[in-house]
Design goal:
Layout (H helix, E strand, L loop, with lengths): L2 H15 L5 H8 L10 H5 L3 H4 L22 H6 L7 H29 L2 H14 L1 H10 L3 H16 L8 H6 L8 H7 L7 E4 L3 E4 H11 L10 H16 L5 H8 L3 H18 L1
Antiparallel strand pairs: 1-2
């Protein structure tokens, strides 16, 4: 090869090697695939504080490489408040039936009952019905493997049967600080991961779900009142219990309706929140 050609090649090589390479060019050469968000994290940490602030929503949580997002803690709450309502026409009709039943029958009867019967007597009646329903709580605590809580329910029953005058007084709570371990079959299903299914509004019973309606039916067989003969007497005792309990809560439903844009939706959401809390306890 001639000396002139050698010098020409050497000159070209030196010229190319001295050309500066931009950061974008280097990135495109070193990384032929797109850079993921988690690979940018070290660069973001090195930025000044004023450049790290990102408005919420600019980067969707799904775009983050580690699968986490700023709203991840709120997501379970939103999911828990959602329930399928395919029977909406029926449920809405039953809501109106229950609404009229409350204002036209249950509330006036409960108000009259409250005006006649002293609060101490009504509280003793409430304690008695709670005492009678001990098998529901005891069995469902066992089904959830809450052995200690089941034992507490047994101790409560024995203590209130004696010191509590057959359950008229909640002596176990006042004397030894042993409160109810409130569990039902709907909560038991929920603790095993069974979802609500669909939303239901039961006539005269109020909001429920397919899961909790099945649980209510199962719990009925654990309630001694169910076995009272004749059946009319059993129904009468259950109605009396409902009137007695309503006498303590007159005004709660009215406040909910007054503050709600759509009482049907508000009642449904309040029920789901309440049941979610009970399952998690």
């Amino acid at each position: 090869m001639r000396p002139a050609a050698i010098f020409s090649l050497l000159f070209i090589f030196l010229a190319v090697s001295s050309v500066p390479v931009s950061a974008d060019s280097a990135a495109s050469i070193e990384s032929p695939t797109p850079i993921r968000n988690h690979e940018l994290a070290p660069v973001q940490e090195s930025l000044p504080d004023e450049q790290q602030d990102v408005e919420p929503g600019e980067i969707p949580p799904a775009d983050l490489g580690d699968g986490s997002g700023g709203d991840s803690e709120d997501q379970p709450e939103e999911e828990a408040l959602h329930i399928a309502d395919p029977l909406y026409p029926f449920n809405k009709a039953m809501y109106h039936v229950n609404d009229k039943f409350y204002f036209w029958i249950l509330k006036p009867v409960a108000q009259g009952y409250r005006a006649i019967i002293p609060e101490d007597v009504r509280l003793s009646v409430s304690n008695l019905f709670d005492h009678i329903s001990t098998p529901i709580r005891f069995v469902n605590n066992l089904l959830q493997m809450r052995i200690r809580d089941a034992g507490k329910e047994l101790v409560r029953f024995l203590y209130n049967s004696t010191a509590g005058v057959c359950g008229l007084v909640d002596a176990a709570k006042t004397d030894i600080g042993l409160g109810q371990q409130d569990e039902d079959l709907g909560q038991t299903f929920g603790s095993y991961g069974v979802g609500h299914g669909i939303y239901l509004v039961l006539p005269f019973l109020g909001p429920s779900s397919l899961r909790d309606a099945a649980g209510r039916a199962g719990d009925r067989f654990l309630n001694p009142v169910h076995y009272v003969d004749p059946a009319d007497a059993s129904v009468g005792i259950t109605v009396y219990d409902k009137v007695n309990e309503t006498s303590f809560r007159i005004g709660d439903y009215e406040d909910l309706k007054k503050s709600a844009i759509d009482p049907y939706v508000s009642l449904r959401d309040a029920y789901l929140q309440y049941r979610k809390k009970k399952v998690e306890e």
